[in-house]
Amino acid sequence: MGFLDFFSSDIAMDLGTANTLIYMKGKGIVLNEPSIVAFDRNTKKIIALGNKAKEMQGREHKEIKVTRPIRDGVIADFEIAEGMIRAFIRKVRGNSLLSKRIIVAVPSGITEVEKRAVRDSAEHAGAKEVHLIAEPMAAAIGIGIDVEAPVGNMIIDIGGGTTEIAVIALSGIVNEESIRIAGDEMNYAIAQYFKKNHNILIGERTAEAIKCEVGSAVPLKEEVTIQVKGRDLVGGVPKTTEVSSVEIREALNEAVVQIVDAVKQTLERTPPELSADILDRGVMITGGGALLKGLDERIRMETNLPVHVAEDPLTAVARGAGKVIENLNNYSKVLIRNRRF
Q: Which CATH architecture has domain 183-251?
């Protein structure tokens, strides 16, 4: 080990729409916080990020803006995203360490322009070498699948901004479907449902809490009713209303149908030998969306395939990217190659 190696810290990053996770070589996952930034509107100086910024969301005054610089899995606000990446990296390794290599997990449907934005942000944040890996590939490695084997594996990674569906074999993605329907879209659907059916305006955080608490993709054994607080659209005053899990499932149904349809489309394009492998091995669901009650059951009913929710689905992509950074030489084939023009 050279002198500089002692001070450098290679890291892998799952730069997600909803959460950012950082894996540090030799240490494992050292950060898992919301991809949210609060900054001063006048100076653009970051005031808070991650959990602290999330607490401010929906409660800020006119001098402060709380934003999510990653939208639909890609960088929407370049300057703020760069500041967020830099701040998160500094948080986990302090100012004393260099960062030779960074691996960033990105959606499989990312464009060349979006790839360049991610690379530039990571380089400006201090990385000497930036590699990209497709999220479903990282998720597959993270949950222990042997991606090098000549066997087909299907991964559905449902994040905040995108749902990534991929069939993986021989260290590559055979076919993929990346749709911008995921956790955020479900939260939006719940907020819209309250607006249309209950004349109540609810915030993004409230919608997410409802989804996590009572959201489902299939009927529950025991349907439940919850109290929801929001602002009355007619009177403009705070109001509480009661809703059932049946209503929330109805609100989520369109997003769930689109995810199931994307799974079916991917299966239709899968070569027959790999289809046979998927039938034997089943489908794995990762990402925060995997926690939606009954989603695995719904996909199983619609495709007649065995469907499994991965253990600790929220950290699968970060763990996979971490395994790659721990052993970059062995995993070089799974990285997204730079396109030569």
A: Alpha-Beta Complex (3.90)
30 vs 170: CA distance, rounded Å: 30
Query: What does the DSSP 8-state code read for residue 35?
Result: S
What pTM was computed for the model?
Answer: 0.92
Mean pLDDT taken over the chain: 91
Q: Could you report the per-residue pLDDT of 150-209, keeping only the tens digit for each?
A: 999 999 999 999 999 999 999 999 999 999 999 999 999 999 999 999 999 999 889 999
3-state secondary structure of 319: helix
Strands (E) located in the chain: 11-15, 19-24, 28-34, 37-40, 46-49, 64-67, 70-71, 74-75, 99-106, 127-134, 153-158, 163-169, 172-179, 200-201, 225-232, 238-244, 283-286, 307-309, 335-336
Integer angstrom CA distances of residue 60 from 22, 41, 43, 245, 291: 27, 11, 16, 31, 30
CATH architecture observed for domain 145-181+253-313 = 2-Layer Sandwich (3.30)
Q: Are 104 and 134 in contact (CB under 8 A)?
A: no
3-34+71-139+316-336 in CATH: which number?
A: 3.30.420.40
CA distance 202 to 195: 8
Cβ neighbours of residue 66 closer than 8 Å, sequence gap 6 or more: 36, 37, 38, 53, 56, 57, 58, 60
pLDDT digits (tens, 9 = 90+) for 7-41: 457 999 999 999 999 999 999 999 999 999 999 99
Tell me which amino acid residue 30 is. Answer: V
Domains in the chain: boundaries: 3-34+71-139+316-336, 145-181+253-313, 183-251
Backbone dihedral angles phi then psi of residue 244, each to the nearest 5 degrees = -105, 160
Residue 222 scores a pLDDT above 90: yes
Q: How far does the chain reach from its first CA to its final CA, in angstroms?
A: 37
